[in-house]
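Example 3.2
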Amino acid sequence: MNETQQSHVWYATLLFSAAVFLVNMLFLSIGDAVAGDRGQVVTLLLVLAAILVLWLLMQFLFHAIVTGIMAKLRAEERSRILETQESQFAAQQRYMKAMEKERHDFRHSSAPWRSCTTTGTMRPWAATSISSSRPCRSTRSRTTAPTPP
């Protein structure tokens, strides 16, 4: 979760905090009016204490909720990263399998040429041009040697 999203989450507490502030300001103005009556002052202080406790409870609950949301978002981010790594790993495995098949096919397709060079039956012109499709003498059906290109 980036900084911008975090700030929006924390801005959500401003509404409740503003309401508590306005109630406190209201009680302060009422407190000046009832300053002479001891019973009303005690009631006012008890109401303010109750509001403070509610405000602290709301702050604790909000913190718990935001912490849970942040943990969930971090877990989702980690999950996305792991899914990306898994797909990259699978692609790498497919690539390695394809290369393994290519190497296998190349080894088997170059085996006749290796056989010709080790037995000495390959002519000098064929050794310089491997891409030529002319096989060595041991694999040809003709008995006469072809002319070089």
